[in-house]
Hints:
Layout: H1 6-22, H2 27-46, H3 50-69, H4 73-110, H5 128-143, H6 153-161, H7 174-181, H8 189-222, H9 229-260, H10 278-284, H11 287-298, H12 308-326, H13 330-348, H14 365-389, H15 393-405, H16 421-436, H17 449-464
Helix pairs in contact: 1-2, 2-6, 3-4, 3-5, 3-6, 4-5, 6-7, 8-9, 8-17, 9-14, 9-15, 11-12, 12-13, 13-14, 14-15
Amino acid sequence: MFFNSFHFALFLPIVFILYWFVGNKSKINQNYILILASYYFYACWDWRFLFLLVFSTLLDYVSAMKIEESTTQSERKMWLWVCISINLGFLGIFKYYNFFATSFSEMLHSFGVTASPILLKLILPVGISFYTFHGLSYIIDIYYKRIKSEKNFVDYSLFVSYFPLLVAGPIERATHLLPQIKVRRKFNLEKAKEGIYQIIWGLVKKIVIADSCAVYANEIFNNYTTMNSLSLVLGAFYFAFQIYGDFSGYSDIALGTSKLFGIDLLKNFNYPYFSRDIAEFWRKWHISLSSWFRDYLYIPLGGSNGSLWFKIRNTFIIFLVSGFWHGANMTYIAWGFINALYFLPLLLLKRNRKNVDGFLLKFNFESIKTILNILITFSITCFAWIFFRSKTITDAIYYIKRMFSDLNFSEQYFKIERYNYDLIILVLLFIIVEWNSRTKIEPISGKYSWIKLALCLAAILALGVFSDYKEFIYFQF
């Protein structure tokens, strides 16, 4: 069930009515309605994997209580690693087994040993990376005694499977979401209105921006050998806005939907393409995942403490794991490696925490420098996205080689029977709206909100009808 589907347009109002008019008398009723809605939402993808979601939930629920009840440190550690191993084991089988089997076979072949890998024909359960990380953060927090284990199974199940965040995040923490689940929610009209605005703006990002850019990006990347330099540069540019509009749009819809039920989720994007360096970009892009890796991997490894070698090692580990989390393909690992290289000079020069505050542009040299830094950061980010989008590293290298060797910057007509002009104008308008909205709650809230809402709905209807791309990118992760 996609957020941009007719099915969801029917599902959401029904759950909303049941939640506020049938289950509003108690927290228990509200949570039962949400958990049933969440399981139905997930079963719509593939009902068979609902059992995997329930098993993972039970595993974390029981393991947390066992860790808390353990009388010795060795017993606590045993339950922790049993839970982590089983969770990562399922994730590894479904998501990474074929990758490792093929890679091992290719390694043997390079030594002259012929081997045919046994591959599994498995469908990747949607959202498995996200709900696995929900559970792991909970278990690790229990182990380090940051929180108490949750005894109410329905409450914990809702924490793991809450449908707005179930299949593509944000990756929530028990310390933030569970306290909201454990109390009765009261209807707040202002929060509900804010949620509607956020949903609409998320749909604009997805349908108007991401889906429009996807048509062009797919055409260019799939036919890069026939594209000139201008089209290849624009291909990277279009994909940058496709993945941003797609994923941040999903996050906006998820956050807005949750506000309709009186629950706040973690913010996942904070205008990352206006970052002044790559460190600031990663503080603003997919915030819930970046902070997860920081808290549960980077800091336990030692973070920025210790020798220079340890700092470099930890930086590359965090970026390579982040790349591998996205999928079983060397292109994602290369993408992570490139971002680690971007980050390294900032770390060595101790400038990775320089741009942590907001900024205003004025007519002075400092503002010109800020704009140049933003353009440079965006450009190198687009360069890295080429590896993320390409099917193989070879494709990415040839794409980049052709981009810098063809040197033909004339307008090119695509087989999709479209030119670039209209889309470039649309994206530039989107950039202007985003820039002016950096200090606001949402771009269409505030003064003249109903006029803005009408314009957004008109854009969704107008461009949504012609959209050739419907799915959300991050469902494959």
